[in-house]
Amino acid sequence: MLELYGGNIMSLLEVKDLRMYFPVGKKGFFSREKQFIYAVDGISFSLEKGETLGLVGESGCGKSTVVRALARLYTPTSGDVFLNGKNLSALNKRELLEARRTMQIVFQNPYASLNPRETVGDIIAEPLRIYKRRGLLTLSEEQIQSRVDKLMDMVGLLTYYKNRYPHEFSGGQRQRIGIARSLALSPQLVLADEPVSALDVSIQAQILNLFKDIQKEMGLSYLFIAHDLAVIEYISDRIAVMYLGKIVEISDFRDLYENPLHPYTKALLSSAPIPDPQIEATRKRIILSGDVPSPNIRQPGCYFYARCSYRLEKCKNHEPSLQGSPTHKTACFLCEQS
Ligand SMILES: Nc1ncnc2c1ncn2[C@@H]1O[C@H](COP(=O)(O)OP(=O)(O)O)[C@@H](O)[C@H]1O
Ligand SMILES: [Mg+2]
User: Fold this and answer.
1) Residue 338 has what pLDDT?
2) How far is the centre of ligand 1, averaged over its atoms, from the C-alpha of 63 (Å)?
3) For atom 26 of ligand 1, which residue has the closest CA?
4) pLDDT at residue 9, as a whole number
5) Residue with the nearest Cα to atom 12 of ligand 1?
6) Where do the H-state alpha helices sit in 155-302?
7) What is the tally of structural domains in the chain?
8) Which residues of the chain have pLDDT under 70?
9) Neighbour order of strands in the sheet with 35-47
10) Which residue, judged by its Cα, is nearest atom 4 of ligand 1?
């Protein structure tokens, strides 16, 4: 039966066992079974008001698919997503559109996600106009324009540039336009899918600070995605580490950096640069051997088995579940033993 309300009504977002499988290949004469890419394979977490949860993992581990499935750009294969206690799969189209106001996306590539033929003013106003057309918002054109001015001001863009086109802006400025657009409907939650990955390192800090300032001002929550641990560390209250469609560790941010438990998290942290040369000289680097297994092959046991230097016999055929304290959980038999 469809669950209408989440267990924890207080959470802004609650995700329960979310799965997104993409069918691949043709169902041929000889292959009776359909093949799938298991892009997101049973993910659960919650996000509180005003909180930032960082989601980190290598390219291809399913981060963007999580974002798209949460925002219902994809219909998930299974699992429940509760937004302010409401189950999104129980809503009709109009109700979903209302709910989507609360949850907006900032995309990775500010070059590809802005329409090159629209002016900056029109791009930022677009969500307002869509909701107005559908009768979900009553705003005059004047009110829309003054809202656009306010949003531009908020993200540090001069309203003087309102009638210019995206190609006239730098990468960092374009991402500011993307951020302004995502804030147009006053959301409570922003799903930020690697919003600084495409930017120069010198610009990244400015945009990250902008995210922080806006959060304070609007009381926003973020699901903030990155493959770079330095970015995640700077912005997150809690961090979830993803590997092959699953969360392998989730923890308060300080605890994750000081006491990483999962062998994959340890390897990720050991390969991230540390600014202090003394620590840098003494620490042990863990080099991950082997390739990431293909996401279209379901293997028994722990998904990290092939690359893990601490693996136990048990890990080959048994899958560890996410366990631990309320503030630090990991999916690893080794951690259960100690
Ligand atoms: N629309 C799609 N159709 C088929 N496979 C997809 C689709 N989107 C993503 N994938 C696959 O799902 C896996 C996860 O992709 P993605 O979520 O983009 O990872 P990430 O954002 O962590 O780099 C990859 O193997 C990718 O090729
Ligand atoms: Mg991605």
Assistant:
1) 58
2) 8
3) 60
4) 53
5) 39
6) 171-183, 201-218, 229-235, 253-258, 263-271, 277-282
7) 1
8) 1-10, 26-33, 272-287, 289-290, 337-338
9) 35-47, 13-24, 78-83, 86-87
10) 22
Q: Whose CA is nearest to atom 3 of ligand 1?
A: 22
Domain that holds residue 22: 13-102+187-337
- List residues bridging with 105 in a β-sheet: 191
- What are the pLDDT digits (tens) for 314-337? 999 999 999 999 999 999 998 876
| Ligand 1 atom index nearest CA of 61 | 22
Closest atom of ligand 1 to 22 CA is: 4
Q: Is residue 210 part of a domain?
A: yes
CATH number for 274:
3.40.50.300
CA–CA separation, 109 vs 272, rounded Å?
23
Closest listed ligand to the CA of 55: 1
In a domain, 173, yes or no: no
Burial of 62 (0-12, 13-18, 19+ CB in 10 A): buried
Question: Is position 268 within any domain?
Answer: yes
Q: Does a structural domain hold residue 69? A: yes
Residues having CB within 6 Å of any atom of ligand 1: 22, 37, 39, 57, 59-65, 295
Chain segment 176-199, per-residue pLDDT in tens: 999 999 999 999 999 999 999 989
Tell me how many degrees the CA angle 71-77-80 measures, rounded to the nearest 5: 60
How many angstroms from the chain centroid is the CA of residue 311? 29
Residue-wise pLDDT for 150-169, tens only, equals 999 999 999 999 999 999 99
Q: Whose CA is nearest to atom 20 of ligand 1?
A: 60
Atom of ligand 1 nearest to the CA of 227: 22
